[in-house]
Amino acid sequence: MSELLPGLASVKENIEKAARRAGRDPACVELVAVSKTHPPEAIREAMECGHLLFGESRVQEARLKIPLLPERARWHFIGHLQRNKVRQALPLFELFHGIDSVQIARDMDRTGRELGLHPRILLEVNMAGESSKFGFTPEAVRRDLEEMLTLERVQVDGLMTIAPLAPEAEASRRFFAELWDLRDELQAAAGVSLKHLSMGMSQDYVVAVEEGATLVRVGTAVFGARGKTAEGE
Questions:
Q1: How far apart are CA 139 and CA 200, in angstroms?
Q2: Could you tell me the sign of the dihedral formed by the alpha carbons of 58, 63, 68, 72, in that order?
Q3: Any bridge partners for residue 14, and if so which?
Q4: DSSP 8-class letter at 232
Q5: pLDDT at position 232 over 70
Q6: Averaged over 209-218, what is the pLDDT?
Q7: Is 156 helix (H, G, I), strand (E, B) or coil?
């Protein structure tokens, strides 16, 4: 049996149980297995176990790894996207989780036109107001969403947040619940569907699922401790 399978299976089982406790269909929640700093061999092993969706946060590392893996793998970008990496990143990823400014969305729109691509994005919201984290404030996303919805190439698919690190997962619940409420408010105000909520990591993904996450970003609980950061990032 694969050494990776128990961790992957456990996370998926926990997601299913959390969804059912909340009266949700488990099929509405996708696991983004965070593969950053892990070698292609580990990702290939997860694929052999039936998992296809992975998350990377460093463009240069992803550019090296993705061509080495089967084309059926799906890739989400879950980190802070720098403006000078937009052109490299757009062809690699089907969804970008951490878009945190109007300017980066404009850059993606312009580059998408040039490359013939339609980038899908989630807007990162700093629900706790932490100075150490990127993201829109709730007030800023209320103000700026309308402009981003007018971009021709970029599609806003939802919101993303990272809860403050805390000893207990329960401490994250209020931030996840508040993101859900903000999403509902923005949908009603703008008359659009923001179907995805990306929230929850290894320490709090169960709580996130209970509070409405459609995407959870889990690395350590799936792959174990991270390897060394790839050079060049």
A1: 22
A2: positive
A3: none
A4: T
A5: no
A6: 98
A7: strand
Q: What is the CATH number of domain 5-223?
A: 3.20.20.10
Q: Is the distance from CB of 119 to CB of 108 less than 8 angstroms?
A: yes
Q: Which two tokens stand for residue 27?
A: 């099929």
Q: What percent of the chain has pLDDT over 90?
A: 92
Phi, psi of 218 (to 5 degrees): -125, 120
C-alpha 60/C-alpha 57 separation (Å) is: 9
Phi, then psi, of 198 in degrees rounded to 5: -95, 110
The count of C-alpha atoms lying within 13 angstroms of the C-alpha of 177, restricted to the half-sphere facing its C-beta, is 8
- What does the block give as tokens for 15? 């997601």
Task: Give which of 62, 47, 45, 55 is closest to 77, Cα–Cα.
Answer: 55
Distance (Å, whole) CA 45 – CA 172: 31
Query: Per the structure block, which two tokens stand in for 83?
Result: 């403006």
Domain boundaries, the chain: 5-223
Long-range pairs for 53-59: beta carbons < 8 A, 24 or more residues apart: 55/97, 55/217, 55/219, 56/93, 58/229, 58/230, 58/233, 59/85, 59/88, 59/89, 59/92, 59/233
CA distance 140 to 138: 5
Q: Please name the amino acid found at residue 161.
A: T
Q: Could you tell me which residues come within 8 angstroms of residue 102 by beta carbon, excluding any fewer than 6 positions away?
A: 144, 147, 148
pTM (two decimals):
0.94
> Quick one: tokens of 171?
């401490």
Asked if residue 51 lies in contact with residue 30, where contact means CB atoms within 8 angstroms, the answer is no
What are the φ/ψ torsions at residue 217 (nearest 5 degrees)? -110, 100
